């Protein structure tokens, strides 16, 4: 019989020399030959036929499972489970058809490219998992590569430089190993399909008919379609996301040139706050979940209520609402710049675009008015920070300028209580000719929330050495970051600490002319805040002078430090213009 020389299911056999090459390929699998000309693998098969057969089929099964797993792998951790892999991937059917149609050399090239494609697909799915878990969104190939060094730096600060280096090297090795294994798997299966061309062709035809039927009828299994095109769909989504991001960058650059207050004369900026010491403070990861989640909220709400009563006793009043942050789970600088610029800065490209220009920030408006000195207090900054000029700061105090000699608390270079006391000693408590506008970033509530500082007597802070014993007695970051329940509990405690530090500082050092605006920069990572959590953060204005709060009476914010669930929710980018208008600034548009 010459069955293999006839067309089968619409596919013809390769030319005779190709068939000869295929038989040769099968005989060359051992590579190393003994003097008699027989390969070691061939001898092994002769001496141990059952073991050789088991090994061959096991390897083939693993190769098939690897390829199908890559094609059906979800891009979120909650979706990973046996149900996700009970599908028929269209990409596998099409791959089999192509392999059966191509001659040997093109087939080898196609198999290698297919394996590399599956490697890329697996990599972006894993990146999607990580980004969804921590930032509440998928990976963006056009924007997010810049965040990978920041991620490594975070791991280094939280778990140590050795762990960060090992993780980076391990990730590279893992990708290279995955590529090698995936290519080996696709090459092996392509060879197997061609060696059994008639049966493989019939199988591909049957699988294709089943896929088309399931797709046409919309048949599902375990809540998902049986006919899957998950792999192609994932790559298509990433491609579209990349194209849209590049288009968005050009449109945003044009939009950022227009500014409602860009040409406002200095004497028409913030006239109703003249003579006040104004402090804008961001509390790291202070999100709506801290106030409303059943695990974190009881302690945080109790702290807000207690702190509010203490401030009221000291003569302060407060109003609170909600802002929807431009970022989630991380990239705090996007929240800072969005609030201060009045532009929606939700990715690193936008951030670089706007900070390279001269768009008026809220902090810069104080400096432009000529009525305030401006200062930044940023204990999290540990290297050159050119954005200082864009923010309009006369002076920046970073991690090395505050005189701290104590231990780090995970990512945070110093406890918030110490940073605020240093701010008082070096800046806020000194006499000056002008009032002060301060831009303060508090970092003790930065993930992984271990160890967390504790409050000490304000007169006992010294150079920070007092915190050595507290840091040593605290939790290990590695124990908290891998435990969702403990992460949520410790996150709540860190917010309590930061709020207590700030409100006690205000109670201790605030004056009749002090105006404090404090808010969160973003929600904590999705594993803590929840996969369906909003992007809202609390925002509060605190002052002794009732005229300050009267100016925002029409905002309908809640009295006190804890906003009601139904308090107004604004986009974070709207805050700058609302604040400028509330305190008497006159719009004079520039650009656009």
From TrEMBL:
Keyword Repeat in annotation: no
SUPFAM superfamilies: Alkaline phosphatase-like (SSF53649)
Domain Sulfatase N-terminal: 384-526
Segments of this protein annotated with the region Disordered: 1-40
InterPro entries in the cross-refs: Alkaline_phosphatase_core_sf (IPR017850), Sulfatase_N (IPR000917)
Domain of life: Bacteria
Transmembrane annotation, as ranges: 54-73, 85-102, 109-127, 158-183, 204-227
Pfam families registered for this protein in UniProt: Sulfatase
Bias kind Basic and acidic residues: ranges: 16-37
Keyword check for Transmembrane helix: yes
Annotated keywords: Membrane, Transmembrane, Transmembrane helix
The protein's name in its UniProt record: Sulfatase N-terminal domain-containing protein
Organism: Streptomyces violarus
Lineage: Bacteria, Bacillati, Actinomycetota, Actinomycetes, Kitasatosporales
């Amino acid at each position: 019989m010459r069955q293999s020389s006839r067309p089968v299911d619409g596919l013809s056999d390769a030319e005779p020399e190709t068939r000869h090459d295929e038989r040769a390929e099968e005989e060359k699998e051992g590579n190393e030959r003994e003097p008699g000309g027989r390969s070691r693998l061939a001898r092994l098969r002769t001496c141990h036929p059952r073991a050789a057969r088991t090994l061959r089929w096991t390897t083939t099964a693993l190769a098939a499972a690897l390829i199908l797993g890559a094609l059906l792998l979800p891009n979120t951790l909650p979706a990973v489970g046996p149900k996700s892999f009970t599908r028929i991937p269209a990409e596998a059917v099409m791959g089999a058809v192509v392999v059966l149609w191509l001659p040997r050399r093109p087939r080898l090239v196609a198999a290698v490219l297919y394996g590399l494609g599956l490697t890329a697909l697996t990599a972006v799915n894993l990146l999607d998992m990580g980004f969804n878990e921590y930032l509440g969104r998928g990976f963006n190939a056009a924007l997010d590569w810049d965040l990978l060094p920041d991620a490594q730096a975070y791991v280094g600060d939280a778990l140590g430089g050795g762990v960060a280096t090992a993780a980076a090297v391990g990730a590279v090795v893992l990708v290279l190993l995955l590529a090698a294994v995936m290519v080996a798997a696709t090459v092996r299966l392509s060879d197997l399909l061609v060696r059994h061309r008639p049966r493989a062709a019939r199988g591909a035809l049957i699988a294709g008919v089943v896929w088309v039927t399931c797709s046409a009828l919309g048949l599902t299994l375990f809540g998902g379609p049986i006919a899957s095109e998950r792999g192609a769909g994932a790559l298509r989504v990433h491609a579209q996301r990349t194209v849209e991001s590049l288009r968005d960058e050009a449109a945003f650059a044009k939009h950022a040139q227009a500014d409602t207050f860009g040409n406002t004369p200095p004497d028409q900026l913030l006239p109703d706050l003249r003579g006040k010491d104004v402090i804008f403070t961001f509390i790291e990861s202070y999100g709506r979940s801290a106030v409303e989640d059943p695990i974190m909220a009881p302690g945080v709400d109790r702290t807000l209520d207690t702190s509010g009563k203490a401030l009221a006793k000291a003569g302060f009043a407060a109003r609170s609402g909600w802002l929807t942050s431009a970022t989630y789970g991380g990239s705090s600088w996007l929240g800072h710049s969005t609030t201060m610029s009045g532009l929606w800065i939700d990715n690193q490209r936008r951030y670089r675009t706007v900070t390279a220009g001269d768009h008026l920030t809220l902090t810069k408006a104080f400096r432009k008015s000529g009525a305030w000195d401006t200062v930044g207090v940023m204990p999290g900054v540990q290297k050159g920070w050119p954005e200082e000029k864009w923010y309009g700061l006369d002076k920046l105090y970073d991690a090395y300028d505050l005189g701290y000699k104590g231990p780090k608390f995970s990512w945070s270079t110093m406890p918030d209580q110490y940073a605020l006391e240093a701010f008082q000693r070096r800046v806020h408590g000194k006499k000056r000719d002008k009032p002060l506008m301060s831009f303060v970033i508090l970092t003790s509530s930065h993930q992984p929330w271990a160890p967390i500082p504790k409050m000490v007597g304000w007169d006992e802070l010294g150079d920070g050495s007092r915190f050595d014993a507290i840091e040593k007695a605290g939790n290990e970051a590695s124990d908290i970051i891998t435990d969702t329940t403990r992460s949520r509990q410790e996150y709540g405690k860190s917010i309590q600490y930061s709020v207590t530090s700030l409100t006690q500082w205000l109670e201790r050092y605030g004056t009749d002319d002090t105006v404090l605006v404090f808010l969160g920069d973003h929600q904590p990572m999705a594993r803590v805040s929840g996969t369906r959590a909003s992007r809202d953060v609390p925002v509060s204005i605190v002052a002794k002078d009732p005229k300050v709060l009267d100016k925002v009476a029409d905002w309908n914010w809640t009295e006190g430090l804890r906003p009601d669930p139904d308090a107004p929710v604004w986009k974070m980018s709207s805050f700058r213009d609302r604040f400028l208008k509330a305190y008497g600034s006159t719009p004079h548009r520039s650009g656009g």
